[in-house]
Amino acid sequence: MFSRRDQIVHAESGTNEWIWSCEPYIRWINTPSGILWIQGKPGSGKSVIAKSILSRLLNTSSTTQPWIIANWFYNGRGGEISTSHLSMLRAILFQILDQDRSLFRFFQEAYRSSQWNQLHANVLLQLSRAGPGIRPIICIIDAMDESKDESAIHLSNSPTNLEDTLDLLQEIAGVPESHIKILVLSRPNRCIEKCLRHSHKVVLEYANSNDIEILVDSGLRSIRKKLAVFDSSDEEEPKSKRPRWTKSPSSQLSLSKASSSSHKTSSSRIFNKSRESEDEEFSSIREYMLKNARGVILWVTLILKDLLRHVEKGMFTFWELRKLLGELPLELHGLYCRIVHDLQSSNNELDQVKARRILVWVVGASETKLLEIRELLDALAITWKPEDALKSSSDPIPPNRPQVRSWNHFRRSIQELCGPFIEVIRPASKLSGETFDDFEVEPTFLVQLAHQTAKDFLACSDAQSFQVDIFEAKRKVALDKIDYLTVALPPISTFYIPASEISNTGLPTNVDNLVKYFEQKLLLCYIFATLPLEVSRNQLGIQIDFWHPPPLMMSPLLWPFLFKDSYPDISVMQATKGSIIGAYFFFAFKFGFVTAVKNMLAIAGLTKWWWSYYNRTVENAALLAAIENGLFAETKHLLRSHPSGSIFLSANKELLQYVAQTGNEEIAMYVYDKCAAQDFRGFSDRQGFLDLVRKSSRSSTAVEVDVAEVQAAIWQITGSIAD
User: Fold this and answer.
1) Considering the domain boundaries, does residue 212 fall inside one?
2) How far apart are alpha carbons 312 and 320 in whole angstroms?
3) Last residue of a domain, which of 185, 206, 227?
């Protein structure tokens, strides 16, 4: 619901401040109801100002002005759910009810009817007719022009097109007693213009000149900062620190130093003069950009990034920068054409094929769910024919990935191939300062098209070798997902999958190899989250319900994983170390294999029975891993979730012995006191148990692990843990 909103940059400090004194905004905010339409060219900063207004309203809403504030950000790059009018209505209604449960009386009749999905509009109309009897409501709806509803099922009483939706919004805000205000942001659009022609209106490109000035100055500061990197320390040496040399002709050393000083003085004159002209040149660039921006912030951003790339190469002249600036088109479509031309000139045909593959996956995948950068790395490895890959002697996925040395390296490689069409962002809101500055990329950062205008351009013939048809992209991504599943979880035994052998004790002998194999499957969880459930089940031969043995057509990798073990005992130790599933998850939790945990839980989600059958086993495995790694908050949280009573506690004397051996007093005594509170003492007294803990020489797992990764793995099943 909030994914698009959370991906939008925060406004640069000092920008968007003009809106608070803008007359149409003041009139709208001070009336009980009505619509404010902020219209702006593509790339003029509509979504950023929508987020700024939302933040301001949330911060000022209080007991004196207790607004209910709901928001929806349409997203043409996010697939059907992100562009659906029904999604917007559901999101708005959910947020209203979530902030004021007393309003359920307006939802009740519609919600309890069999036609709930057709009655969202009715509920909003009822709320608008409630007058001052309810808290005032503000709805912020961004990118209205990107909305559409391609659903095959059109509900009779719900809007299914832009005009119907706008008519509904007008009716809600136009009811005489209404206390609902609506903010709509969009590009110029004939339908929106027709429906909202009598509403309060702000034209963004006529009002954001100060914002553009701030952004230009910020970008030029970043460029000058890059220039400063080339400065050497001797050129910047203060005069007070320069040595005074003797004039004695008998001292060769003095003459040498004097000569060196003379060279430095001469160099300083040269470079000081260069810096003086630098100020003039940057001032000229600034004036040109302010004159030609024409309200389009995206144009400013793309131009600054182009200049920055040129400066980063070094050995440039300002004549080159002026020439580059003069040749860059003054509108976005032409600028995108120039970018394509530059990418084709700088990249050979093979690189252009790679770039288009990235674009196809980013466009096709975004129709359902944005890709993490690590998932894209695995997606680009799908270049095999499955029948050939299954014959491989080693796992074909890792060596097929693009060879990168870090996530920062991968990000730079994407930008070299795809230019500014693709951006890598934080899962939540990225910082405005990251527009021009480098930042440390993490594997969970998201990859998306930089702007809706980029998606529109890539769909047209002017994109040339970079052209991406959205339907072709969706089809290609769907086929790649099936190929990946076929190779990652093969339907037959292969040389590269870990052998599924069970020892005499009933436990698998290759737990570490299997978990490490799952840890390497970076795209697997994404596929399970985006492929239809029945497709995944059919591909892997998984039945919804079965006892044992597993069906023969199932991937051999899943046989032990989806085999119903004997019901886990209430003993923490037995349930973990005496169970196949417990062994898998304990190893994954203990060493912080986050991806393996996610993948195993995703596989479990393909059945109806798995989690209800094995949830205690998985939690016990997490508890032992938390104890092993000295994680007190996680231990406390997981132990608290266990059933109480002397039967459970008496079965866990082995757990007390285990925790005593860790040597961690805080955790050990907490577990002991938890048991002692139920009149069970596994040892003679508290002091005797404490002495035993202190005698232990082992304070943690013998293998060095990243504790943060262990925590992240545990959080996959517990959520955010607070002490």
Assistant:
1) no
2) 13
3) 206
